Amino acid sequence: KNSVKTFNSGMLGFAQFLLSTNPNVDSMESLWRSITLVISSFYLIIFLVIGANFLMSGSYIEGREQAKEWLKNAFMMIVGVNVSFVLYKLLLETATAITQFIWITGFESLFSDSITSSAGFVLLIATSGAVGLALITLFLRYVFLMLAVLLFPIGIFLFYTPKLQNWGKIIFNLIGMALFMQFIDVIVFVASNQLMTDLAGQTGQAFVP
User: Fold this and answer.
1) 3-state SS string over 93-129?
2) What is the pTM of this model?
3) When you count CB atoms within 10 A of the terminal residue's CB, does the N or C end of the chain come out lower?
4) What is the pLDDT of residues 53-62, one digit of tens each?
5) Which of the four pLDDT bands, split at 50, 70 and 90, describes residue 203?
6) Residue-wise DSSP of the chain
């Protein structure tokens, strides 16, 4: 039983790290620069297409308005791609700050040894399985957020490229879901905290050996 408690304590500590922090993407900056360099090679093509569309539209007002809209999107794309690294870091730091504030409010009690000190063996085994499954999703989320700094400029490029906006939205939605998952995990762990507290108490000892 003590060995299971020690094992659970290690997993909970790792889960706390994955849940309350986000990856430091500074090490990915060189790869990000490579991605933005590749994207920048398409800028000339985009401006040529916009210029051709503007010339071919002639006296058609709708065609000229569309060309102007594409030109505005092209400038927004260039700015967005170039600041995407700083913007992505800001998103990660904001999510981390909110999550760490939640821990400060008392949710970190889930990772206290006092919660499992009076728990039975069956409950400890169930906790091991639940935390193990949670660790898989948390680790995959952590890795995805690390790699997403490379997807973010691609998403901006696609979002402001005519006919490709939906692909950009898909990338943004994936990143948003990964960030939002952090708050969902907090809620799940808080519910688990309450369950563990109840089952590890006097009532729970009647059902858990």
Assistant:
1) HHHHHHHHHHHHCCHHHHHCHHHHCCCCHHHHHHHHH
2) 0.74
3) C
4) 777 766 677 7
5) very low
6) -HHHHHHHHHHHHHHHHHHH----GGGGHHHHHHHHHHHHTTHHHHHHHHHHHHHHHTT-HHHHHHHHHHHHHHHHHHHHHHTHHHHHHHHHHHHHHHHHHHHHTTGGGGGSHHHHTT--HHHHHHHHHHHHHHHHHHHHHHHHHHHHHHHHHHHHHHHTSTT-HHHHHHHHHHHHHHHHHHHHHHHHHHHHHHHHHHHTSHHHHTT--
